[in-house]
Design a protein that fits this description.
With 439 residues, the protein is an alpha/beta fold. It is 46% helix and 12% strand. It has 12 helices and 10 strands. Strands 6-7-5-8-9-10 form a 6-stranded mixed beta sheet, sandwiched between helices. Strands 1-2 form a two-stranded antiparallel sheet. The chain has a two-stranded antiparallel ribbon with strand order 3-4.
Length: 439
């Protein structure tokens, strides 16, 4: 208690004097010094604590290190494809590396011809090996792993390149790099151990030919990577924070024509199914506000296991992107699919993606007849009130439009604007909710 009381007393004494006192505790003798005179006195509430352990009646500070948490892998946002590096063809990589390697000179000051020649050969082989391996390593490091990509871009890789092809090509490029490094080091070592000028030249020639042969036989992996980079970089970029309108429907119902009318997108318009061969983007500007529009391949009446990759692209957009849906129907019979089949597809998609904002449009209304179109394969007398109503006017609340006569286009534009504004409200609400959860 006496020691503690003395410490409390010293706290009240101004620090303009120098103090050096000795305090007697139960064990040992301790000397404590107060700081020297300062012109300004600062007070701080924060106090730093140090953990000490008793070692031979002395207090020894112990290091208090916290285990560092391993950083979790960063999941990429959409746009990773635009960050892919430029990949050179395998032939260009080898010839560029060979030119640089041949310019390498032996170390200065070597008088012996044999020593100078093996020095030059070893350095040139080492330089060639590095010039080949460095770009290959850069490709492997800068191409993102699929597991860290956004789910939408993962689907694009699988459906565009084939399942597992992306990873397989990167593995082949890495195997090529390892082989180049191994062979290059081996022949550089053999060249450095040559006993004569002639042997050094032979080892150099043999090493160059061996590396050239490897690149010629296995360089196809690099050329495949060139194609992959070109294909992925050409993919349309979707801004997740910008409201997006996705046009969905059966093939050849007029989706591309509506995209051309509504946005800056210019998809191909032809009178045959699956004109749209991928995800095409356009933009809308209404009252100085910017929105996105996507044109998607058509959907057929079949189960998911039987769908082609174009149809799966459409489902990937709806599954992984926060979009509002503009579903297009064609009841005129011009699209080649019966209204009853379109009705079945519509019901399936509507039930699967019922959490999306939705707007129905009946296109080509100028071609509609007074009596509904009935295909030979359909049962016109089927007792299905909902289907019968669908054949006549489409889904309840659908907007009837015609690109040719421009009927209903103004109403459609206004409805689309309202739909996109509602989608913007959803995106902002989700962003606020995510920020609250993070905080």
């Amino acid at each position: 208690m006496s020691g503690a009381f003395s410490l409390l007393e010293s706290w009240q004494i101004p620090c303009t004097r120098f103090f050096s006192r000795t305090y007697q505790f139960s064990r040992g003798c301790y000397e404590m010094q107060r700081p020297t005179k300062r012109q300004t006195l600062f007070f701080c509430r924060n106090m730093q604590t140090v953990i000490c352990e008793v070692v031979n009646a002395s207090y020894v500070p112990t290091s208090q290190t916290k285990p560092k948490d391993k950083p979790s892998p960063k999941v990429e946002t959409i746009g990773a494809f635009q960050k892919l590096p430029m990949v050179m063809p395998s032939v260009d990589i080898f010839h560029s590396a060979l030119r640089k390697a041949k310019r390498v000179l032996p170390t200065k000051g070597i008088a012996n011809i044999a020593k100078r020649e093996r020095n030059r050969g070893a350095k040139q082989l080492d330089a060639l090996m590095k010039e080949l391996a460095v770009p290959l390593r850069g490709y492997i490091e800068n191409f993102p792993k699929r597991m860290y990509l956004h789910p939408y871009e993962r689907s694009l890789i699988e459906l565009t390149l084939g399942d597992g092809n992306y990873e397989e090509v990167l593995k082949k490029v890495d195997a090529l790099r390892k082989k180049v490094v191994s062979v290059g080091k081996e022949h550089a070592s053999l060249c450095a151990k040559s006993l004569s000028k002639k042997e050094a030249e032979e080892q150099l020639t043999e090493g160059l030919e061996k590396l050239q042969e490897i690149f010629k036989c296995e360089g196809q992996a690099v050329d495949d990577l060139v194609y992959i980079a070109k294909t992925l970089r050409a993919m349309s970029v979707v801004d997740l924070e910008m409201p997006t309108l996705c046009l969905v429907g059966a093939p050849n119902v007029g989706k591309s024509s509506l995209v051309r009318m509504l946005s800056t997108g210019k998809p191909e318009v032809c009178n045959y199914p699956f004109t749209t061969r991928g995800i095409l983007m356009g933009h809308i500007t209404i009252n100085f506000q910017h929105f996105q529009v996507t044109d998607t391949p058509g959907l057929l009446k079949r189960c998911d296991e039987d769908r082609n990759n174009l149809e799966k692209l459409t489902l990937a957009v709806l599954s992984h992107l926060p979009t509002a849906i503009l579903y297009v129907h064609d009841l005129s019979g011009e699209c080649g699919m019966s209204p009853s089949d379109q009705f079945m597809i519509y019901k399936e998609i509507r039930e699967r993606f019922d959490n999306h904002l939705w707007l129905d449009v009946v296109s080509k209304c100028d071609l509609l007849q007074e009596s509904p179109v009935v295909f030979i394969t359909e049962d016109g007398e089927a007792d299905h009130l909902e289907l019968a109503k669908y054949r006549k006017i489409g889904p309840e609340g659908a907007i009837h439009v015609s690109i040719k006569s421009e009927k209903g286009l103004n109403e459609l534009t206004n409805k689309v604007h309202e739909l996109l504004m509602a989608q913007m409200g959803r995106i902002r609400s989700k962003k606020i909710q995510d920020n609250i959860e993070v905080a």
